[in-house]
Amino acid sequence: MKFDSIREFERYQELKLLETAGVISKLECQPVFKITVGGRPVMSKRRKGHQYEYRADFRYYDNEQDRVRIEDVKGYFTPLSVFKIAILEAETGTEVEIVR
């Protein structure tokens, strides 16, 4: 696997330990979420047939809190990443947790 940063790799190692301990399950790396608004896909006008996506760093099931969690390891934010996260949260009702 390839990671975008040392911090992302470190977080992956932490999550793998939690998964081994049974605290979390179903750990996924780089899950992709199609961007929708009001249930309709947000399509690119420049790249015909291309739906915009948001790629988080991790998604897993928190066994202790009985819920799905989405994490993004960020050193900084771009305006586009802030916008995509806001849309994803509004559409899915799931908070994207930022790990520094």
What does this structure look like?
By secondary structure, this protein is of the alpha+beta class. The chain has one domain (6-99). Helices cover 29% and strands 32% of the residues. It is built from two helices and eight strands. The protein has helices spanning 6-20, 79-92; strands at residues 24-29, 32-34, 36-37, 40-41, 53-55, 58-62, 67-73, 96-99. Strands 1-6-7-8 form a four-stranded mixed sheet. It has a two-stranded antiparallel ribbon with strand order 2-5. Helix 2 links the parallel strand 7 (67-73) and strand 8. The model has no long low-confidence stretch (mean pLDDT 93).
Beta-strand content: 25-35%
Quickly count the helices.
Answer: 2
Q: What is the spatial order of strands in the main beta sheet?
A: 1-6-7-8
- Major sheet summary line: 4 strands, mixed
Average pLDDT value? 93
What does the radius of gyration come to?
Answer: 15 Å
Structural class: alpha+beta
Helix content: 25-40%
State the total count of DSSP E strands: 8
Structure described in brief:
It is built from two helices and eight strands; from the N terminus they run αβββββββαβ.
How would you summarize the topology of this molecule?
Elements: H1 6-20, E1 24-29, E2 32-34, E3 36-37, E4 40-41, E5 53-55, E6 58-62, E7 67-73, H2 79-92, E8 96-99
Parallel strand pairs: 7-8
Antiparallel strand pairs: 1-6, 2-5, 3-4, 6-7
